[in-house]
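Quick one, T. Sequence first:
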Amino acid sequence: MKTIKQKFVIDESGSMLPQQATVISGFNEQLATMKQEEKDSDVRYLVTLVKFSDNVTVLYRDKPLAEVEELTTRTYVPKGWTALYDAIGTTIDTAVLGETDTVVVIMTDGQNNASREWNKSQIKTLIELRQNENKWGFIYFGADQNAWASASSLGVANAVSYTAANTGEAISAMSACRSSYVTTASSGAYNVYSLTDSIQSCNLTATSSGSTISNMPINVTQTNLTGDITSGNLFPASGNTVVPPPTSKK
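Structure tokens:
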């Protein structure tokens, strides 16, 4: 039995209010998919959910999937600003030292503007350490923004760029890709490169003009971190092609 730690870092700032119902249903869909994966494969999930606005709230940490409550309009109420760095820092800093087999999904529609405990440089160092030393997989979901640039600036190796109107479809697509990732990687250690491969195998490969899934504009990229963490052989020289998605401003 392989134990996978799935950590969700979800934006609950005021700009997410129009997508409240979509985020709730999308997150609950993720839980349902993961439960099916537990039934169909030799995998066990421990789930962490961190949400953030002006402040950071850890709803639960390393909770067995069977005990995880679904999101509701009571537990996900968008308001306030965006303490993105504090949320990521809290999520990583509270993990057990040396923890492996971990996937972190970061979902936001804006830039950091309210963090007090962590800055960008500190977060980038933390993420690169976990990717390099512990082989964590990170995915940055960026709505209505250049997710490639945002993820790269934080050291995140995988980025998903989509429009806010297509939040539900983006979550569904990524749920399917994570399922593929679990199927192909459950017998070995999780790492950045295999996560990238699984995303791209789900036909979310980025192109210069943007990819389309079910008529949904979405781009997935492997960010160019060659100078930072190639020493860990996470990016074979022959497979490090990066095509940033079109820039989108709020």
